[in-house]
Design brief:
This protein is α/β, with parallel strands linked by helices. It has helices spanning 14-25, 56-62, 80-83, 89-109, 150-169, 195-205, 227-239, 256-267, 290-296, 304-332; strands at residues 5-9, 29-34, 47-50, 69-72, 114-120, 173-178, 181-182, 211-215, 221-222, 225-226, 246-248, 254-255, 272-276. It has a domain at 5-182 and 224-248: 3-Layer(aba) Sandwich (Rossmann fold). Helices cover 41% and strands 16% of the residues. The protein binds nicotinamide-adenine-dinucleotide.
Length: 333
């Protein structure tokens, strides 16, 4: 039997590179496309094209008539330090929207059988996320729309774009709203990292008995999903007949300071937290997995602690390698 063929857009990024690995393990023929190769290990793709997906020519090159599935993860994105400061709004909206406009147009033109789009929990209205203990992120609460970032507005626009192409052009789409995915080989420094990676890095860099800074009052709540669970959920959605939009996240909500305490336990260090002003986004957010359970008959099962325990050694190794490079550079000077 002929292997199924998949195109993974954003294959040089965190979720995309893990998806490439998974599809290969399932026997797919995989093409990856991104502005860059994966940072931390070679891509598992059969073919990897360096391409700027904001450009039409790139889509002409990466999407042929023979592609069964497209996974569209490419986006201009980052953690709170990137998307909530306002400094990158124009770029985030423009680049991600144009990538998705090309994606749907070329998917129809090249008769792609099925396309997955990665939306985000950031589409949910800020007014349902003001109470850190009782956020409401059920799928149907997305409207009246009031995301708290331009990143969220672009995601909401693009969700609608995919469904419009489904209705009018027969495109077979799957749309999921990811809630804070983390794990090994995710961005861990440089300003685009998210809370779990930032906290793990700070704790790995700190001596026992030291202090770390945490943005906000630390009582803001979130849930975090381990990467393997995210990949499993996307594959199950693609194999199902349910189009979404559906949350893909964890329902284990924690305060940011509580997550820092979990990481300290894993690290075996006692470290003080100094909460400082910084970009934090909404007060509370948690995945609501009722629809996921109903439609896919499945939900994530790994605890946050387990996921953090798998991620800590990987980031600690990155921290130590960076430290060694700095020391070697100082000796060379
Ligand atoms: P990532 O930043 O690691 O990956 C995105 C990739 O897109 C990067 O490799 C980047 O180079 C690529 N890209 C950006 N602009 C491009 C362009 N013009 N041409 C080609 N490639 C381009 O992010 P991720 O964490 O892997 O997220 C994947 C998707 O899931 C994104 O759409 C993101 O918005 C969405 N999402 C992620 C999370 C999360 O917690 N990681 C949460 C919600 C939604």
């Amino acid at each position: 039997m002929k292997a199924r063929r998949a195109l993974v857009c954003g294959a040089g990024g965190f979720i995309g590179s893990h998806m490439v690995r998974r599809l290969r393990a399932e026997g797919y023929w995989v093409r990856g496309a991104d502005l860059k190769y994966p940072e931390f290990s070679p891509s598992a793709a059969h073919e990897f094209l360096i391409a700027d997906l904001c450009r039409r020519e790139s889509w002409q090159a990466i999407l042929d008539e023979d592609m069964d599935e497209v996974y569209q993860f490419a986006a201009d994105m980052g953690g709170a330090g990137y998307i909530f400061t306002g400094d990158n709004d124009a770029q985030v909206m423009h680049n991600s929207a144009i990538i998705n406009l090309h994606a749907v147009e070329f998917a129809v033109q090249r008769r792609v059988k099925k396309i997955f789009y990665s939306s985000s929990a950031c589409i949910y209205p800020a007014y349902h996320q003001e109470d850190p203990d009782n956020p409401n992120c059920a799928e149907e609460t997305a409207y009246p729309a009031a995301p708290d970032s331009e990143y969220g507005w672009e995601k909401l626009f693009s969700e609608r774009l995919y469904f419009a192409f489904a209705r009018n052009c027969g495109l077979d789409v799957r749309v999921a709203r990811f809630h804070n995915v983390f794990g090994p080989e995710g961005t861990w420094c440089g300003g685009k990292e998210k809370a779990p990676a930032a906290l793990i890095r700070k704790i790995a860099e700190q001596e026992d008995g030291g202090t770390i800074e945490v943005w906000g009052d630390g009582r803001q709540t979130r849930s975090f999903l381990y990467i393997d669970e995210c990949i499993e959920a996307v594959r199950r959605l693609m194999e199902s007949s349910f189009t979404g939009p559906v949350n893909i996240g964890s329902e284990e909500m924690v305060t940011i300071n509580r997550m820092a305490a979990m990481i300290m336990k894993i690290a075996g260090k006692k470290i003080a937290i100094r909460n400082i002003p910084g970009p934090t986004g909404v007060r509370g957010r948690n995945s609501d997995n009722r629809l996921l359970r109903r439609e896919l008959g499945w939900e994530p099962t790994q605890s946050l602690f387990e996921g953090l325990a798998k991620t800590y050694p990987w980031i600690e190794a990155q921290v130590n390698a960076a430290l060694q490079r700095t020391e070697e550079a100082a000796v060379a000077d």
